[in-house]
Structure formats: structure tokens, C-alpha cells
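B., you asked whether I could sanity-check this one before it goes into the benchmark set. Here's the sequence:
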Amino acid sequence: MDLGIAGRWATVCASSQGLGRACAEALAAEGVHVVINGRDEERLEKTAAEIRSRHDVTVRTVAADITTAQGREQLLAARPDPDILVTNLAGPKPGPFLSLQEEDLARGLEMHFLTPLALVRSVVDGMRERRFGRIVNITSAMVTTPHSFMAASSGARTGMTSVMKGLSRITVADNVTINQLLPERIDTGRQQQMAQIEMERDGISYEEARRRQAESIAAGRLGRPEELGAACAFLCGAQSGYISGVNLHLDGGSYVGLV
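And here's what the prediction gave me:
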């Protein structure tokens, strides 16, 4: 299927690895030029080289911490008028509400509420003027199926999702869509982190913790990053202008457990 977005530009946050990279790869495969971002410059440049080797697109890199105003300014300077924005950041500190410190909750809000909102605010008016824009926010299944162990994640991301839902009602008439991807147990470094926590807490092997992760999903396996990337690319397609304000779950059929 030709998504009709070849030649457009996408800015993909936190995309040197994991889910962000999967989205950048999927968009590049559609002929979209990409600005990719990460804090580790060496890893970022390696990712850029690999994308360029596979796809005939321009890849620009921005090594910056986008939770800071300066970092966001650097990111947006690489392409001030993107047609596509994919917001993404590493998950906040896991833990139940009563175990988290105030700074943990504040960091979650900074990463998964204030940062994506600031980025969207910076690009959405230009998208509306050009009458094309696709905004995809990578959030988490914790938005609609909150778990006590992920308080910082569910709180900040639910707030952001609510704001984006309201905004999407305004922008969709200008062919600017805003949607969220809600992953559950996609096989990235985050799931490895969660396996380590479960291993140490329950006194089990890492292999057993990983087996439990797979068994907790109805599909009987963890999701693949490229599956989320493909969903992202579809939502960014020219034909997807009638899909907006949606929370798309990528959860293997159902969510049935967490650490």
C-alpha cells in the first residue's frame, strides 16, 4: 500500500533505538525524510547511517535532550516545518504511587506531559496553515489500563492524551490529525528493564521473568518494534485524514498482567 507521503518530512523523537527508531524506519521505508533524535550521539549517528543505507531518504540527526527548552529548539531547528511529528521518550521510573518521590512524579510530567505538548504547540499551527499534518504520540497502555506499579507513567500520559484529544477536534478540519499509540510489552529495552525488576523482586532468573512477560499477553509473545512502526506509518498516511483523536492499542490482543 502506497501511503502517499513520500517526500514529506518527519521529526521523530527519541529515535536512535526502540520504538522511536521503529517509527523512523517505517516512515523512511515510505520515502519520508526524517529528523531523528537521541542523547547518545554515537548511537544516533549509527542509526542514521543504517537508515540511509536501506532507504533513499535524507536523514538529519539532533543529539539533544528534548525535555529541555534548548533541546527542543535544537530538534525543531533541524526541520522547522515538519509534516509529521512523532513524540516519544523513555518510560518514567516504575513504581507504585506510595513509593515514588515528588521528583519522580515531576520528572514523569516533564517527560510525558510538558515535553510532547511543547513540541506539538511548536508545529501544529504551521501544519494547519499548510493543510497537512500528522501527529502521533507514543504513550502506553497504562493510559487506559493503569497499573499500580506504573503511577508516574499513567498519570502524566493520561493528562497528555486528554489534552491531545481536545486539540484533535480543532485541527482535524485542517487535515491535521493527532493520534496516540498505546504499546503494551513491545520487546525493547523497557521490557528488559521491567524483567530485571521482576527478577530481583521475586528471586527468579532473567529467563523466567522474560517468560512471564510473554505469557502475560494473549498472543503469547512480546510485540515487535516494527509492528508498532508500521502502525505509526499508517496513521501518518495521506489516506488517514479521517482518523483522529484515536488511542490505538498494540497489546497482543489483551493486557493481562504486569510486574
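One thing to flag: The helical segments are 18-29, 41-54, 69-78, 102-130, 151-171, 189-202, 206-215, 225-235. Otherwise nothing jumped out at me.
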